[in-house]
From TrEMBL:
CDD domains: AdoMet_MTases. S-adenosyl-L-methionine binds at residues 291, 320, 341, 389. It comes from the Bacteria. Keywords: Methyltransferase, S-adenosyl-L-methionine, Transferase. InterPro entries: MeTrfase_TrmA_AS, MeTrfase_TrmA_CS, NA-bd_OB-fold, SAM-dependent_MTases_sf, TRAM_dom, U5_MeTrfase_fam. Belongs to the class I-like SAM-binding methyltransferase superfamily. RNA M5U methyltransferase family. NCBIfam families: rumA. This is TrmA family tRNA (Uracil-5-)-methyltransferase. GO terms for molecular function: rRNA (uridine-C5-)-methyltransferase activity. The active site is at residue 416. GO terms for biological process: rRNA base methylation. It comes from Limosilactobacillus secaliphilus.
Amino acid sequence: MEAIMKVKLPVNKNEKKTGKVIDLTYQGNGVIKIDHYPIFIPNALPGEKITFVVTKVTRHFAWGRVLSWQKKSSDRVELKDQRYLQTGITPLGNLNYEAQLRFKQHQIKELLDKAHLDDIKVLPTMGMAKPYRYRNKAQVPVKLIRGQLETGFYRRGSHDLVPIEDYLIQDPVIDATILAVRNQLRKYHIQPYDERTGRGCIRTVMVRRGYYSHEVMVVLVTNTKKLPHAADITAALVEQVPDLKTVVQNINDQKTNRLLGTTNHTLFGPGTIQDRLLGIKFTISPLSFYQVNPQQTERLYQTAIANAGLDGSQTVIDAYCGIGTISLAVAQHAKKVYGVEIVPEAIADAKENAKNNHIDNTEFVVGKAEEQMAKWQKAGLKPDVLIVDPPRKGLGEELIEAAGQMAVPKIIYVSCNPATLVRDIQRFMDQGYHVTKPIQPVDQFPQTTHVESVTVLERTEK
Ligand code: SAH
C-alpha cells in the first residue's frame, strides 16, 4: 500500500542543497522551506545562507545538517565546544542573549497570532544580567564509559552520556561538587547502573545549593538498597565540599526514566536544605519541586504579585502551589491564601514552611487543582484572585470552568509553555475573561528554549 502511494518529495536523503534559513523552531532548529516543505536544521539561524545535507526525510518534513555557511547571522555566537548544543545544556547557546530574549517574546506572539489573538501584546522578555551559572540544581547521569565511571549529560534525544565537567549554566559550586562525588565513586569502585541489564549501583547524582544560604545537598540515587562505602564517601564529601549540609541516598530500583525513587536514607545532616525567596525561608527536600533559577524566580513572582493588585483584603487561590513558594510570598499582601497541589510531600513542606515563617493566613490542600477548584466552588468560596502555575500540559478544563462559575475577578497565569497558555487563554475567553495587560515573559532558563511568562486575565463585560 505504502509503495503505491509514493509521493514526490522536494528533497531526497543525502542530497546536498543550498538555502536561506527563514525561521527558528521552538526547539531552536533552523527552518528552510522548499515549495512549502520544511527542513529542520540544527545550529542554523534565521537569515543565514547555508549548504546542507538532507539527513532524514519524512512525508511532511525533513532534517538536515549544515555543511558550510555562505552567510552567517549577526546574532550568532561562536561556541568553543559544539557539544553544549548537542547535549541540550545550551540549545540556544549559538544565539546571543539579546536575540534569545527576542526569540522567546516572539514565540508567544506567534502562537497568539496563529490563534487570531493578535490584539494581545507581548512585552520584551525580562532577562538576566549574567545569563550563565544560574541553576541551583543539577541532576546528572552516571555511566561507565570505556571502563571508567563518568558524569555528564545525555546527547539530545538519546541516553548516550557525554562526559562534562563544566555545565555552563549551573552554580559553579555545584559543578565542583559533582566532580568531588564522581572522584569518590571512582575511588571506591562503585558500579554505575546499566539501563540495559538493570544491574549496577549508582544511577544519578543530584546536587542542590541554596542561592542565599549556600547550603549544599548531595543526593546519590542508587539502583541497589546498599551503597557500598557510603560512610567513607560521605566523610570525604563533608571534608571536601564547602557548606555541605546534607547527603541523602535515594533508592530507585525501577526500570524507568524517572530520576528519583520514593525512598530516602539520610547519610549525613538533616536530609533537607534551607533557602530563601523574597525573604521567606524554605525547607527543600530531595523530592520537592523548587524553582531552579532563584534570581529570576523572584522577579517572576514579583511580577505576578504586582499584577494581582493586592492590598491585604483579598482572598487568593494558588493552584499548583508546590511547596507554597507563591502562596507564602502572596500571604503578606492578602487576607487569606488557599494552596492546592497534587504531591502530598510538597503540601507537607508548604505547611511546614508557613509555620517556620510564622505565616498563619494560608491553608494548603493535597489534590488535583481542577477537582479542588470545583470543591471550593461548591463550598461557596469566593476568591478575588486565582494564581495558576501549572506544569507544561497547562490547565485542566474543569479548573477553567470552575473559575468561570466562581466568577473570580482576576486570574494571574504563570506559564512555562506558551502553546498551552494560548489554548487556555481561549478557554478562559469562553468563560467571559479577557487578557487585560500585555503578557510579560521572564527568562527563567537562559541558553535554553524554555519560555516562562505572566498573563493577567480579568472578567470584563464586553
Ligand atoms: N508554584 C510552584 C510550583 C509550580 S510547578 C513553584 O513556583 O514553586 C507545578 C506544580 O504543579 C508541581 O508542583 C506539580 O507537582 C503540580 N501539579 C501537577 N499537576 C497537578 C494537578 N493536576 N493539580 C495540582 N497540582 C499539580
